[in-house]
């Protein structure tokens, strides 16, 4: 498994950082590009809709997996 890569950003007016595997960052960047939005706005939207008990890193991983699953479902 790849080493974690940490990215820092502002959410709701405060700085935070998230560490994910590079493969997840690649998919999240792809989602932002597909939606024609900035990476920060994508993460802010995902943060705003995640259940409070789910950590942000987990919510980002799930969003990446769901995006890929939709693409696979559409390809079949």
Automatic annotation (TrEMBL):
Q: Which residues form a coiled coil?
A: none
Q: Which residue intervals define the domain Ribbon-helix-helix in the entry?
A: 5-68
Q: Which organism is it from?
A: Gluconobacter albidus
What name does UniProt use for this protein? Answer: Arylsulfate sulfotransferase
Q: Name one GO molecular function term.
A: transferase activity
Q: Please, which domain of life does this record's source organism belong to? A: Bacteria
Keyword match Mitochondrion: no
Q: Report the InterPro entries cross-referenced here.
A: RHH_dom (IPR027373), RHH_sf (IPR038268)
Keywords, ordered alphabetically: Transferase
List, alphabetically, the Pfam families matched.
Answer: RHH_4
